[in-house]
Amino acid sequence: MNILSEEMMKELVPKIGHRAKLKANIDEWKKVLDLTSSQITIMDISSPLSIDFESPSTSSLASVEGLTDTPSDTEISFTSSNNQTLNVSNSNAINNQHSNLSLIRQSSESVQNLVLNYLNNSIEGKGILFKYRESGVLDNLGRRKLCNLIVRKELENEPDKIVTSQKLLLLSQEITSIFPKEHISTYFIPYMSYVKKATKGKLLDCFNNRRREFKKAGVITHHSRGTTTIEPNFLNLNTLVNSDIENVEEPIKWLNNSSDPWDIVEKYWDFTKSYRLRNVLNSVIQTVSQYMNEFPALK
User: Fold this and answer.
1) Is 43 exposed, middle or buried (0-12, 13-18, 19+ CB in 10 A)?
2) Residue 268 in contact with residue 254, Cβ under 8 Å?
3) Which branch of life, at top level (predicted)?
4) Could you tell me which of 16, 53, 88, 214 has the fewest CB atoms within 10 Å of its CB?
């Protein structure tokens, strides 16, 4: 895909409409790869120089410290000591970076070798490793077994455990370190606001499926409808294009006819919020009751 040129696309897809859609999908695919690789770079403790921390403005700190430590009648003295104050501020910023880096290191170490332990301590896991050593690749069945094993181990002592996006990303990173030919994007892709794509991936799907099974079996109770673990995102009504409308049609239809399971309601509700808000703003007259009747989950 990376070496596919415009001329090659013209030969493969003569129709301009289909070619434009292909190009858009390829661009989106590249963004996904860039996003996942950049997020993993931030979490990789072996390359701390790639981490970009936000530090306070050293110039503003210098001004405050200068005014505090320097008498008001020694303006020349304040100017001459500015460099020294700035050095102190830079030192504080470096200390802040080391503090943030240690937090990332602790988070990474908390799941380090977690997947490998799951594999080595179970017959199913050893079978996955053995087959990978023989063939050099994981097929779809192997990926499904791997994800189910990880999810089963993660939830066996805490069925109602909420797994964060960071944890999913770190687990996916370890999978690719054990199985080098695998891609992180296969297992987890975080929410991307600039292309309005919801979180997805095989690992996330397995977690959602297992939680649904637990709910049906009564192992865990449904969360209160007033509680959600989905992080809010900024609305951008001006970027809703035709491709986005096509993407939300199916979730909207599902919301028009379903109100359970609740985790899917939350996922689709968050994914379609810009589309729904735009429709409300563009509608001539729509009462609250009419809007609620459109979505059974609101009743």
Assistant:
1) middle
2) yes
3) Eukaryota
4) 16
Tokens describing residue 196: 């309005």
Query: What would the two tokens of residue 54 be?
Result: 């936000």
- Rounded CA gap, 212 and 205, in Å? 11
Other beta carbons less than 10 A from residue 217's beta carbon: 9
* pLDDT tens-digit readout, 109-126: 455 688 999 999 999 999
Token code pair at residue 49: 């120089």
Q: Residue by residue, what is the 3-state secondary structure of 163-182?
A: CCHHHHHHHHHHHHHHCCCC
Residues 6+ apart with CB under 8 A from 39: 169, 190
Give pTM, 2 decimals: 0.44
Instruction: Provide the residue count of the chain.
Output: 299
Instruction: Tell me the longest C-alpha to C-alpha distance in the chain.
Output: 79
DSSP per residue, 133-149? HHHSS--HHHHHHHHHH
Distance of alpha carbon 125 from alpha carbon 61, whole angstroms: 54
Q: Which of 83, 81, 58 is nearest to 69 (CA)?
A: 81
